[in-house]
């Protein structure tokens, strides 16, 4: 069945299911927005020049600048929001890839924990303790008779 005829087909469903496709799509959107941003920057500069040159009879030198400030601020806010949007697109693509890696790592971690639990539940056979040393021979490293600190070494070496 063709996906174009499928009533449940959503165009971005395939994109959303793959981190690579999501990154490509977001990069395309970001590229378009950056192009729009360049055009908006040019528009803001041209608007600023035009509005600041527009004087009315009786104006002082700063009146045109004061009248232009709200328009300049509005365009500046649009550019700032556009830059934040493009940064958000980059971050979204990164988070999407990190999500898939986290899913894979979670599944792997759960398998490892389950294996560890199984190992703890059924421990291997306990090995018999080594034969105790003969009474006539003295063990060099029995664990209890050796020096316990560097200060005890002097007594042992004599």
Detailed description of the structure:
It is a single chain. By secondary structure, this protein is mainly α. Helices cover 66% and strands 0% of the residues. It has 4 helices and no strands. It is elongated. It starts with 12 loop residues before the first helix and ends with a helix.
Distance N terminus to C terminus? Answer: 92 Å
Number of helices: 4
- Principal-axes geometry comes out as elongated
Oligomer: single chain
Number of strands: 0
Radius of gyration: 37 Å
| Share of β-strand residues | under 5%
Overall residue-averaged pLDDT value:
84
The profile of the biggest β sheet is:
none
* N-to-C SSE string, H for helix and E for strand: HHHH
The portion of residues assigned to helices is 55-70%
Structural class estimated from helices and strands: mainly alpha
The stretches of 5 or more residues where confidence is low (pLDDT under 50) are: none
Short précis:
This protein is an all-alpha fold. Helices cover 66% and strands 0% of the residues.
What brief labels describe this structure?
158 residues; mainly alpha; 0% strand; elongated
How is the secondary structure organized here?
Elements: H1 13-17, H2 19-53, H3 63-121, H4 153-157
């Amino acid at each position: 069945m063709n996906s174009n005829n499928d009533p449940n087909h959503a165009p971005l469903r395939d994109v959303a299911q793959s981190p690579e496709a999501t990154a490509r799509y977001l990069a395309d959107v970001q590229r378009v927005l950056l192009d729009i941003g360049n055009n908006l920057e040019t528009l803001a500069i041209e608007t600023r020049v035009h509005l600041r040159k527009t004087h009315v009879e009786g104006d002082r030198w700063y009146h045109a600048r004061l009248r232009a400030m709200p328009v300049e601020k509005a365009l500046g806010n649009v550019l700032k929001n556009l830059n934040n949007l493009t940064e958000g697109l980059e971050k979204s693509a990164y988070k999407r890839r990190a999500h898939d890696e986290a899913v894979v790592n979670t599944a792997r971690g759960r398998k490892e924990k389950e294996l560890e639990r199984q190992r703890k539940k059924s421990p291997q056979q306990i090995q018999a303790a080594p034969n105790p040393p003969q009474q006539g021979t003295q063990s060099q490293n029995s664990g209890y008779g050796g020096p316990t600190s560097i200060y005890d070494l002097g007594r042992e070496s004599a």
